[in-house]
Amino acid sequence: MKNKIILLLILLIPSLIYFFFELTQANFNKLPHFGPKQVNARDAKDTIYYSVPPLYYKIRNGDSLEISAKQYPIYAILFIDEANRVDNYKLRGLLEYAQLKKKDVEKIPLFIVGKYDETKDNLILPDYLDSLKINENNVQQLLCPSKKFEAYRNYYLNQKPYYIMNHFIILVDNKRCVRGYYDGNYVAEVKRLKEEYEHLKLRDEHNRMEEKEKIEQR
Do 170 and 140 touch, CB atoms closer than 8 A? Predict the structure, then answer.
């Protein structure tokens, strides 16, 4: 009897997941796309959304890194500069984020981007994570040359709403479209970041299931 119940649950789980996605479809569709939009020349009903181009950063050992879609399908990113430093090296946009419990943010890959002086022989990389006492494995520090810092940040803030500030955390999907901005100074905003990240992740899983079904049907 017990084995039959387990077998029944295994058979029902895919159906339950499917109905969950169908019932919550509206929630996924409400998540906006930010940045300039274009009408697809081939299909007027289709919209081409703005996406962030490939960008290369430095990590603390001096190696270069691109935030690849394969390794990081969905991620959050925050650009900081010296103007953001307040209250004993805590940074605007991370005050509430840094104080949340690990379980609230551990699933979200977060990149903190600072800048370095590329004219100096010895690369000095300030460690913002130590300043914030952030030790989560999901949080990584990246740096770009100071002369490119504004350009890199502007890629993520392209045609942003007027109320979005430079210190906001930015959510990016697997197509590198900007899907949300969040002020990390407020716990409600960080919780919204978590919820909308999970929405995008579930949406990706749903799309993979559909693709798998199509392949199997062929």
Answer: no
**List of residues 6+ apart from 83 with CB closer than 8 A:** none
pTM: 0.76
Domain positions in the chain: 2-28, 31-213
Question: How far is residue 168's CA from residue 150's CA, in Å, rounded to a whole number?
Answer: 14
For the chain, the average pLDDT equals 76
In CATH, what number does 31-213 get?
Answer: 3.40.30.10
**How, if at all, do strands 139-145 and 110-116 pair?**
parallel
- The pLDDT tens digits of the residues spanning 133-171 come to 565 567 888 888 889 999 999 999 999 999 998 889 999
Quote the crossing angle between the two packed helices 2-23 and 187-217, to the nearest 10°: 110
Handedness of CA 140, 146, 148, 154 (dihedral sign): positive
Contact residues for 112 (Cβ-Cβ < 8 A; gap 6+): 77, 78, 80, 94, 128, 129, 139, 140, 141, 142
Q: For residue 179, what are its two tokens?
A: 């899907």
The Cα 113–Cα 110 span in angstroms is 10
C-alpha to C-alpha distance for 207 and 201, rounded to whole angstroms: 10
Tokens representing 100?
């949340």
β-bridge mates for residue 187, sequence order: none
How many Å apart are CA 173 and CA 72, to the nearest integer?
9
